[in-house]
Design goal:
479 residues; Ubiquitin-like (UB roll); 4 domains; five-stranded antiparallel β-sheet; 31% helix; binds flavin-adenine dinucleotide; binds FE2/S2 (inorganic) cluster
Amino acid sequence: MPDRDTPAFFLGDSPRRPGSVSPTTTVLEYLRSVEHRPGTKEGCAEGDCGACTVVLGEPDGPRMRYRAVNACVLFMAALDGKQLLTVEDLAAADGGPHPVQTALAEHHGSQCGFCTPGFAMSLFALDRSGAAVDRAEAVEALAGNLCRCTGYRPILDAALAARPPDPEDTATAARLRALTAGGPLRMKYAEQAWHAPETLTDLAAALVADTSAVPVAGGTDAGVWVSKQHRRLNAIVSMEKVQELRAIERRDGMLRIGAAVPYEDALGELDALFPDLGAMVRRIGSRQIRERGTIGANIANASPIGDVPPALIALDAKLVLRRGAAQRTVPIETFFAGYRRTILTTGEFIESVDIPLPKDGRVFRCHKVAKRFDQDISAVCAAFSAAFAGGAVRDIRIGFGGMAATPARAHPVENILIGQPWTEASVRAAMTVLDATFVPISDHRARAAYRRLVARNLLYKFFLETAASTPRTRLVPAP
Ligand SMILES: Cc1cc2nc3c(=O)[nH]c(=O)nc-3n(C[C@H](O)[C@H](O)[C@H](O)COP(=O)(O)OP(=O)(O)OC[C@H]3O[C@@H](n4cnc5c(N)ncnc54)[C@H](O)[C@@H]3O)c2cc1C
Ligand code: FES
Ligand code: FES
């Protein structure tokens, strides 16, 4: 099939094939300066405030799946095959304000109005998800939208108000498929190139053929490089269209998560198998970020404060790496070669993450400590997975983030605990070893002494939660 050279998408109900546009133009910039749709606002331009929230629809079988996303860190080329909805598309069946807009108005959920289109789009996506909306769900859906003047109570009231459902859309999925029929998107603009292979084989070949190409999955990191750091990305290979990388399945005693699975799509399995990890993933960025951001990239970017790697270290996860047709499987803790460096060779990428399914009697807990509950980067992450027998530690694996230049396994702490009685004395001795294991840095997120103290206390908390008589250590009981 011939390649297509420009992204094809619907803006509302109208097809678009913008001929001359850089693939890394942000959707926010495109909406405001090309489409003259000023309802989508720019606040922070880095995925934090939600003023730029739009909704992306994509075919999911015969239906559409809708996601609230941040237009400021979304590349134009990523619109290919999708429906882009902005506040200008919201309307009731009679042409009046959409029910989410009516609810915001009736509950006094808007003052200056700058944030309001973003809230309306997040609420619209929430309604379209079909989720039962209780207070917890509303808070989670709106945590990525900031309002500087109204206060959140009226907005939450609007979220919880009963609304008539939108009529089901049964035509758009088929129309979108017809719009993008043909080969994969391969666009050029000046010296820039965007290639979106549709199979794993083609993706692997593309990354070997052009070793200067940057692989991009959800683009939430890469979007900030462009929107804030004004970096020019010349060759991009998008992983988003490769269905093999979007799969999540249980097989051979493992949960296999394709590297391009967005966080939100993994939550069902994470909640079912590793509830603590599901709860922690819900604290990554906002729902808008989690609808695009991927677990594969959270590992690949090798940030010392990425939230998922410490948990995966404790869970004994393996990474499947691919270069061309060659595959290798490595334990995740061996993947990090230094500060923001990995063992990936040129043209190699993460294909999937394999997490062993939980075994009877093994206990897993993980924690993210940050200045705020939502929308904040960790100061320290800690994860523990242990098996006990006869009151002693049979096996324990411990992963930390924020304590070293990379996510790290606490081998010396594990070694002193294995075979020891699971008692106050053992855990106190292990806390002393933990102090000597890592040399954390002091930065604007936390001082080294604070990081050390938090790490020690999280180990102690794990002891309290798993020892025979457990005092209550959480406001919300551990699952
Ligand atoms: C507002 C905001 C809030 C955030 N909050 C958090 C947070 O709370 N916790 C946290 O941990 N992170 C956070 N992040 C960071 C980021 O969203 C996550 O790390 C996310 O997982 C990145 O996924 P992505 O697919 O969007 O990455 P992309 O931008 O697509 O890629 C990021 C990097 O990984 C590389 N890459 C991607 N996939 C692969 C692969 N399969 N193989 C090899 N290389 C690959 C890319 O080349 C690029 O260098 C936040 C980011 C933003 C913008
Ligand atoms: S402008 Fe703030 S999240 Fe996009
Ligand atoms: S109404 Fe002014 S920022 Fe929300």
